[in-house]
Amino acid sequence: MAAEADKINTEIDTTRSRWALAYAWLAGLVVYAVAIYIASNDVQRWINDLAWTVAAAAAAYCCFRAARQVELERRRAWLWITVACTSWLLGQLHWNYVHLILEVQQPFPSLNQIFYTGFALFIMVGVMQLPEARNREPFTLKHVGNLGLVTCCLAVTVVLGMLEPALQNPSVTPTFLWIGVVHTVLVAGTFLFTLSALWTFRWGPSWTPMLLIVIGTCIYAVSNFAYAHALLTESYLPDDVVNVSWLLMFGLVASAAHEQAWLSKREQADIAQKTQVRERWLEAVMPALLIVIMIGVALSSSATFTPRVIWLSATIFILFAVILGAREAWIQSESQELTDQLMSANQQLQDANIELRHSEQRYRELTTALEQRVGERTTELKRAYEELEGFSYAVAHDLKAPLRAINGFAHLFEQEMEGQLTERAREHLSRIRNGSLKMSTLIDDLLSYSHIDRRGMQASVISLPSLVDQVLSPYQDEIQRRGIVMTVVVEPMTVRVDASGLSLALRNLVENALKYTRDTKTPRIAVVCRRKEGGVLLAVTDNGIGFDMQYHDHIFKLFQRLHRDDQYPGTGIGLALVRKAIERLGGKVWAQSKPGEGSTFTIELP
C-alpha cells in the first residue's frame, strides 16, 4: 500500500510539474486582463507594451532552457526558436522606446518590423532543424499534394487578406504594397509552414510541442491580420482583444519548450501507437481545416469583393479541389496497393499454414513409426540383456564349479601323495591351485563389474565418517601387522548418495594403497574427505611405488595393468570398477602420481 501511495504521489508531482508553466501563464493573463480593464487609455498603452516585452523575454528564456535540457539532436532547433523570440523581443524594445519614451507614432515599415519579420523566419528555420524534419521520409506525390493545398490556402490569404484591399486603396504606394505582400506571405506562411510540417513529418515525442507551435503561429497570423485591418481602418484601441493574442502566442511557444524538456526526461512506451493514431486523425482533418481557413479569410474580406476577386478566388478554389482530388486518388491507389500486398501476404501465409499442417502430419507419422521402431528395438535389447544376464550367471556358475573341483582334487592329490611327490611335481600342483584361485577371483571381479549396471541405485543420506570407518575396519589387522601409518581426516558431514557404490569404490582404492605400499619401508596411507564448492572431495593417498602420469587414462581401463602378476597380483579390474561406480553416482575420479613417490586417487561427488 505504501509503495502504491508513493507511486500515486509521484505521478501527481509529475503532472503538476508538467502543467506548472501553463497555470502560471494563465494566471498572468488574468492579471493582465484585470489591469487593462481598470486602467486608463494611457496606462493601457504601457501595460500592453510591457506585457508584450515580458512575454517575449519569458518565451525566449523557456526556449533557451529547453535547448539545454533536450537531447543533442534537438538542441539546435530550440536555439533557433530562442533566437526567434529574442528577435521579437528586440523589435518590441525598439517599439517601446519609440512609442513610450519618444511618444512618436511608428511608421510602416520601420526598424522594429525587421525584427518581427525575423521572428517568422527563425521559427521556420527552427522547425526544420528538428530531427523529425531532418530525418524525413522520401518525398512522395502525397507530400506534393499537401504542399499544393497549403500553397492554395496561402494564395487565398494573400489575395483576399492583403493584396485586394491594398489595390482598392488609392493611397497605397507600390512600395507599401509589395512590403505588405511580403509581410503577409511571411505571417501567413509561418502558420501554414508549421501546419504543413506537422501534417507531413512523423513527430514522435515532439508531436505535442509541435502542435502547440502550430497553434501559436496560427494566433500569430490571425492577430497580424486583425491588427493590420484595425490600423488601416483606424479602429485600433489599446484595450482591443487582439492585444492579448501576442501573449497567447508567446505562452504557447513557451509551453511547447517546457513540454519538450519534460518529454525528454521520460520514456514514451506507447509513442508509436499514439503517433499512428495522431497521423491518421491529422490526415483526415487537415484538408477540411485548410478549407475552413480559406472560407474564413473570404468571409472576413467580403467587403472588398469585386468580379476580379471572385474569379481569382474561384480559380484558386478549383485548383485546390483538383489537387485535393488528385491527392486522394493517389492515396487511394497506395491504399489499394497495400491492400493487394496484404492479401497476397495473407494468401502466402495460408499456403504456408497448409504446408505446415502437411509437414506436421508427416512429422507425426514419422514420429509414430520411429516410436514403434524404438519400442521394437527396446524389446529386442531387453531380451538380449536378459539373455546376457542369464548367460553371465550360467557361465559364472559353470566355470566356478569346475575350478572348485580342480582346486579341491589338487589339494586331495597333494595330501594323498605327500612324501611321494618330487619338488617339481609339488610346484606343478601349486601352479594348478593358484591358477584356479586366480581364475575364480577374475570371475568374481567380472561379475561385480557387470552387476554395477544391473544393481539399482538406492540413494540415502549417510554420514561420511561412519562410511569410511566401515570401509577401513576389515583392514585394521593388516594395518597393525605391517606398521602402516594410517591417517584419516574426514570432516563431519552427510551426503545423499548410494552407499554401496561409494563403499565399493573406496574399498578398491584402499586395497590398491595397501598392495602398492607392500615394499615400502615406512608405509603411509591417508584418507581425507573435505567439502568444496558444489560438492565433496574424497582422496586416498599412499607413498607406494607410484606410476608415470602418461599412463593415467590407461590404468582406468578394463584388464589394464602396469606390473607383472608375480610382482603385484591383480586382475586389472579394480580401477575400472572404481570409475564405473563413481560415474554412476554422478561424480568423477582421477589420480596424481610420480614414480617412487606414491599416488593420490581423488573422488569428486556432487
From TrEMBL:
EC number: 2.7.13.3
InterPro entries named among the record's database cross-references: BphY/WalK/GraS-like, HATPase_C_sf, HATPase_dom, His_kinase_dom, HisK_dim/P_dom, HisK_dim/P_sf, Sig_transdc_His_kin-like_C
Keyword terms: Coiled coil, Kinase, Membrane, Phosphoprotein, Transferase, Transmembrane, Transmembrane helix
Catalytic function, reaction form: ATP + protein L-histidine = ADP + protein N-phospho-L-histidine
Coiled coil: 335-369
Transmembrane intervals: 20-40, 46-64, 76-94, 114-131, 143-163, 175-199, 211-232, 284-303, 309-326
GO BP terms in the entry: osmosensory signaling via phosphorelay pathway
Entry's Gene Ontology cellular component terms: plasma membrane
Any Pfam family: HisKA
Domain Histidine kinase intervals: 394-606
CDD domains per the UniProt record, alphabetical: HisKA
SMART domains: HATPase_c, HisKA
GO molecular function, one term: phosphorelay response regulator activity
First-level EC class: transferase
Name assigned to this protein: histidine kinase
